[in-house]
Amino acid sequence: MTQLNAPTTVSIVAEGANAEGGGGLPFDPFLLIMLVVFGFLIFSMFRRSKKTQQQQRQLHDTLAPGVEVMTTMGLFGTILSVDKDENKAVIEISPGNTATVHLQAIGKAVNPPAADAASEPTVPDSPAGLDEDPTLRDENGPDDQRPGTGRA
């Protein structure tokens, strides 16, 4: 009887490597690039996840009665009480209406902007006050371009 020797995978790979002149597996730059890209994607996913967890932890540290919040479903309300043991918060949506929500359902703390008198534009009480402010003066004259007024 004749015995057939089937070539194994190892011998085929070794023959291919020897045919190219190398002693081991051939170097594939595409494989190296793919591994680097795959490693970068995994690194960025873990970094984004860690950043999100840190932001969520900071939000939970700021939750206290009286803070205005927005839930992930878009409800705005003011926190009445926080129970960190049960992960629940009671928020007042409108006067007399409360809702109990999970702490993870609170999307962000809404801080109303501080009203500075200097940042608000001042409006004069009379039309004569408009001429006093040079930034509000119109150098080209009135914009009245209705027919029959004599202006073009």
Largest sheet: 5 strands, antiparallel
Question: If you compute it from the alpha carbons, what radius of gyration comes out, rounded to the nearest whole angstrom?
Answer: 36 Å
Task: Give the N-terminus to C-terminus distance in angstroms.
Answer: 113 Å
Q: Note poorly predicted spans.
A: none
Q: What is the string of SSEs from the N terminus onward? A: HHEEEEE
Helical residue percent? 25-40%
Multimerization state: single chain
Got a strand count?
A: 5
Q: Give the overall shape, derived from the CA principal axes.
A: flat
| Structural class computed from helices and strand pairing | alpha+beta
Mean pLDDT: 75
The strand order across the widest sheet is 4-3-2-1-5
User: If helices are DSSP runs of H or I spanning 4 or more residues, what is the number of helices?
Assistant: 2
How big a fraction of the residues is strand?
15-25%
Could you characterize the architecture of this molecule?
The protein is of the alpha+beta class and 152 residues long. It is 30% helix and 19% strand. It contains 2 helices and 5 strands. It has a 5-stranded antiparallel beta sheet with strand order 4-3-2-1-5, with no helix packed on it. The longest helix is centred in the N-terminal third of the chain and has 34 residues, at 29-62. The protein is flat, with a radius of gyration of 36 Å. The model has no long low-confidence stretch (mean pLDDT 75).
Record the SSE blueprint.
Elements: H1 9-19, H2 29-62, E1 68-71, E2 76-83, E3 88-94, E4 97-102, E5 106-109
Antiparallel strand pairs: 1-2, 1-5, 2-3, 3-4
